[in-house]
Amino acid sequence: MSVLLGLRMAREQMGEAPSPVAAELLDGAVRDAEAALAQVREVAAGLCPQVLELRGLVPAVTALAAASPVPVTVRSGRIRLSQVVETHVFFLVSEALAHAVDDSGASRAEVELTHLGSGLVVSVTSDACPPCGAGAEARVGVMTECVTLLEGTLTVTCSSAAGTTVRAVLPVPAGAA
Q1: What is d(CA 177, CA 163) in angstroms, rounded to the nearest whole number?
Q2: Residue 81: which H helix or E strand, with range?
Q3: Is the Cβ–Cβ distance between 133 and 160 less than 8 Å?
Q4: Residue 112 has pLDDT above 90, yes or no
Q5: Per-residue model confidence as pLDDT tens digits over 42-89
Q6: Number of Cβ atoms within 10 Å of the Cβ of 84
Q7: Between 136 and which of 68, 87, 131, 153 could a Cys-Cys bridge form, CB atoms 3.0 to 4.6 Å apart?
Q8: DSSP code for 163
Q9: Torsion over CA of 21, 26, 29 and 33, rounded to 10 degrees?
Q10: Which residues on neighbouring strands pair with residue 75, listed in sequence order?
Protein backbone atom coordinates (compact mmCIF):
# COMPACT_ATOMS: atom_id res chain seq x y z
CA MET A 1 0.00 0.00 0.00
CA SER A 2 2.79 2.44 0.86
CA VAL A 3 4.48 1.69 -2.47
CA LEU A 4 1.29 2.63 -4.28
CA LEU A 5 0.95 5.87 -2.33
CA GLY A 6 4.60 6.71 -2.99
CA LEU A 7 4.17 6.13 -6.72
CA ARG A 8 1.10 8.33 -6.83
CA MET A 9 2.89 11.09 -4.92
CA ALA A 10 5.85 10.85 -7.29
CA ARG A 11 3.48 11.14 -10.27
CA GLU A 12 1.92 14.27 -8.76
CA GLN A 13 5.37 15.80 -8.13
CA MET A 14 6.31 15.38 -11.79
CA GLY A 15 4.03 18.29 -12.63
CA GLU A 16 2.34 19.23 -15.89
CA ALA A 17 5.20 18.59 -18.34
CA PRO A 18 7.00 15.42 -17.27
CA SER A 19 9.20 13.41 -19.55
CA PRO A 20 6.80 11.18 -21.56
CA VAL A 21 8.95 8.12 -20.93
CA ALA A 22 9.20 8.77 -17.19
CA ALA A 23 5.47 9.48 -16.94
CA GLU A 24 4.61 6.27 -18.82
CA LEU A 25 6.96 4.23 -16.62
CA LEU A 26 5.48 5.72 -13.47
CA ASP A 27 1.90 5.24 -14.67
CA GLY A 28 2.72 1.60 -15.49
CA ALA A 29 4.21 1.11 -12.03
CA VAL A 30 1.06 2.57 -10.44
CA ARG A 31 -1.14 0.19 -12.49
CA ASP A 32 1.05 -2.78 -11.53
CA ALA A 33 0.98 -1.83 -7.85
CA GLU A 34 -2.82 -1.43 -7.95
CA ALA A 35 -3.19 -4.86 -9.58
CA ALA A 36 -0.84 -6.45 -7.03
CA LEU A 37 -2.75 -4.86 -4.15
CA ALA A 38 -6.06 -6.12 -5.57
CA GLN A 39 -4.60 -9.64 -5.81
CA VAL A 40 -3.31 -9.50 -2.24
CA ARG A 41 -6.72 -8.36 -1.02
CA GLU A 42 -8.40 -11.18 -2.95
CA VAL A 43 -6.06 -13.78 -1.46
CA ALA A 44 -6.49 -12.34 2.03
CA ALA A 45 -10.28 -12.40 1.67
CA GLY A 46 -10.08 -16.01 0.58
CA LEU A 47 -7.94 -16.89 3.57
CA CYS A 48 -10.16 -15.36 6.19
CA PRO A 49 -13.23 -13.50 4.92
CA GLN A 50 -14.00 -10.28 6.71
CA VAL A 51 -17.57 -11.38 7.42
CA LEU A 52 -16.18 -14.36 9.35
CA GLU A 53 -14.07 -12.10 11.55
CA LEU A 54 -16.75 -9.47 12.07
CA ARG A 55 -20.00 -11.46 12.23
CA GLY A 56 -19.05 -15.08 12.80
CA LEU A 57 -19.45 -18.50 11.27
CA VAL A 58 -23.12 -18.58 10.30
CA PRO A 59 -23.12 -15.27 8.37
CA ALA A 60 -19.84 -16.29 6.67
CA VAL A 61 -21.26 -19.66 5.60
CA THR A 62 -24.43 -17.91 4.42
CA ALA A 63 -22.31 -15.54 2.30
CA LEU A 64 -20.37 -18.51 0.92
CA ALA A 65 -23.66 -20.21 0.00
CA ALA A 66 -24.92 -17.05 -1.70
CA ALA A 67 -21.78 -16.95 -3.85
CA SER A 68 -22.19 -20.57 -4.96
CA PRO A 69 -23.05 -21.26 -8.59
CA VAL A 70 -25.80 -23.65 -7.41
CA PRO A 71 -28.54 -23.08 -4.81
CA VAL A 72 -27.27 -23.79 -1.29
CA THR A 73 -29.52 -23.84 1.77
CA VAL A 74 -27.96 -23.07 5.16
CA ARG A 75 -29.58 -24.38 8.33
CA SER A 76 -28.20 -23.34 11.68
CA GLY A 77 -29.09 -21.96 15.02
CA ARG A 78 -27.05 -19.21 16.55
CA ILE A 79 -23.47 -20.43 16.80
CA ARG A 80 -20.46 -18.46 17.94
CA LEU A 81 -17.16 -20.26 18.54
CA SER A 82 -13.53 -19.27 18.94
CA GLN A 83 -12.02 -17.65 15.87
CA VAL A 84 -9.73 -20.65 15.29
CA VAL A 85 -12.65 -23.12 15.33
CA GLU A 86 -14.84 -20.89 13.17
CA THR A 87 -12.05 -20.46 10.62
CA HIS A 88 -11.47 -24.22 10.33
CA VAL A 89 -15.19 -24.92 10.07
CA PHE A 90 -15.56 -22.22 7.40
CA PHE A 91 -12.79 -23.80 5.32
CA LEU A 92 -14.29 -27.24 5.84
CA VAL A 93 -17.64 -26.02 4.49
CA SER A 94 -15.92 -24.18 1.64
CA GLU A 95 -14.05 -27.33 0.58
CA ALA A 96 -17.16 -29.51 0.99
CA LEU A 97 -19.18 -27.19 -1.26
CA ALA A 98 -16.37 -27.15 -3.84
CA HIS A 99 -16.27 -30.95 -3.59
CA ALA A 100 -20.01 -31.08 -4.29
CA VAL A 101 -20.13 -28.52 -7.09
CA ASP A 102 -16.76 -28.80 -8.85
CA ASP A 103 -15.97 -32.48 -8.33
CA SER A 104 -19.43 -34.02 -8.36
CA GLY A 105 -21.53 -31.72 -10.51
CA ALA A 106 -24.16 -31.00 -7.87
CA SER A 107 -27.19 -28.93 -8.84
CA ARG A 108 -28.02 -28.05 -5.21
CA ALA A 109 -26.57 -28.43 -1.74
CA GLU A 110 -27.42 -27.97 1.92
CA VAL A 111 -25.20 -26.96 4.82
CA GLU A 112 -26.29 -27.74 8.36
CA LEU A 113 -24.49 -26.61 11.51
CA THR A 114 -25.86 -28.16 14.71
CA HIS A 115 -24.79 -28.23 18.34
CA LEU A 116 -25.01 -31.81 19.55
CA GLY A 117 -24.10 -32.33 23.19
CA SER A 118 -20.63 -30.87 23.65
CA GLY A 119 -19.89 -30.90 19.94
CA LEU A 120 -20.68 -29.29 16.65
CA VAL A 121 -21.96 -31.33 13.72
CA VAL A 122 -21.19 -29.90 10.30
CA SER A 123 -23.04 -31.54 7.43
CA VAL A 124 -22.84 -30.64 3.75
CA THR A 125 -25.18 -32.65 1.54
CA SER A 126 -25.52 -32.46 -2.22
CA ASP A 127 -27.57 -34.23 -4.87
CA ALA A 128 -24.52 -35.43 -6.80
CA CYS A 129 -22.49 -38.61 -6.68
CA PRO A 130 -19.79 -39.79 -7.13
CA PRO A 131 -17.01 -37.23 -6.94
CA CYS A 132 -14.21 -37.88 -9.38
CA GLY A 133 -10.78 -36.67 -10.36
CA ALA A 134 -7.64 -35.61 -8.56
CA GLY A 135 -9.39 -32.50 -7.24
CA ALA A 136 -11.85 -34.64 -5.30
CA GLU A 137 -9.07 -36.52 -3.53
CA ALA A 138 -7.22 -33.30 -2.72
CA ARG A 139 -10.36 -31.69 -1.29
CA VAL A 140 -11.07 -34.68 0.93
CA GLY A 141 -7.48 -34.36 2.16
CA VAL A 142 -7.99 -30.69 3.01
CA MET A 143 -11.28 -31.44 4.78
CA THR A 144 -9.62 -34.25 6.74
CA GLU A 145 -6.85 -31.88 7.79
CA CYS A 146 -9.33 -29.22 8.98
CA VAL A 147 -11.22 -31.77 11.05
CA THR A 148 -8.10 -33.46 12.41
CA LEU A 149 -6.71 -30.12 13.62
CA LEU A 150 -9.91 -29.72 15.65
CA GLU A 151 -9.68 -33.32 16.93
CA GLY A 152 -12.93 -34.28 15.22
CA THR A 153 -14.11 -37.02 12.90
CA LEU A 154 -15.00 -36.81 9.21
CA THR A 155 -17.11 -39.12 7.08
CA VAL A 156 -17.87 -38.78 3.40
CA THR A 157 -20.69 -40.97 2.11
CA CYS A 158 -22.05 -41.27 -1.38
CA SER A 159 -25.01 -43.11 -2.86
CA SER A 160 -26.84 -42.69 -6.12
CA ALA A 161 -30.14 -42.32 -4.23
CA ALA A 162 -29.04 -39.83 -1.55
CA GLY A 163 -26.13 -38.00 -3.16
CA THR A 164 -22.99 -37.09 -1.23
CA THR A 165 -22.79 -36.12 2.43
CA VAL A 166 -19.73 -34.71 4.13
CA ARG A 167 -20.21 -34.90 7.90
CA ALA A 168 -17.82 -33.71 10.58
CA VAL A 169 -18.31 -34.05 14.31
CA LEU A 170 -16.14 -31.59 16.21
CA PRO A 171 -15.64 -31.24 19.94
CA VAL A 172 -16.44 -27.76 21.16
CA PRO A 173 -14.27 -26.73 24.10
CA ALA A 174 -16.13 -25.67 27.23
CA GLY A 175 -17.05 -22.01 27.00
CA ALA A 176 -16.36 -21.86 23.25
CA ALA A 177 -20.01 -21.89 22.20
Answers
A1: 31
A2: none
A3: no
A4: yes
A5: 554 555 678 888 899 999 999 999 998 999 999 998 888 988 899 899
A6: 11
A7: 131
A8: E
A9: -170
A10: 112
- Which of the given ranges, 22-26, 110-114, 129-133, has the highest pLDDT on average? 110-114
Reference 72, options 123, 124, 110, 105; nearest CA is 110
Residue 127 parent element (H or E): none
Rounded-to-integer distance, Cα 80 and Cα 78, Å: 7
Largest CA distance in the chain: 72
The pTM of this model reads: 0.70
Spatial distance between the Cα atoms of 170 and 85, rounded to a whole number of angstroms: 9
Angle 83-98/134-149 helices, nearest 10 degrees? 160
Ramachandran angles phi, psi of 139, nearest 5°: -65, -40
d(CA 169, CA 85): 12
Beta-sheet strand order (sheet of 119-126): 72-76, 109-116, 119-126, 163-171, 153-159
pLDDT bin (cut points 50, 70, 90) of residue 158 is confident
In degrees and rounded to multiples of 5, residue 33 shows phi and psi of: -65, -40
Q: How far is CA 171 from CA 37, 69, 149, in A?
A: 38, 31, 11
Asked whether 61 and 124 are in contact (CB, 8 A), the reply is no
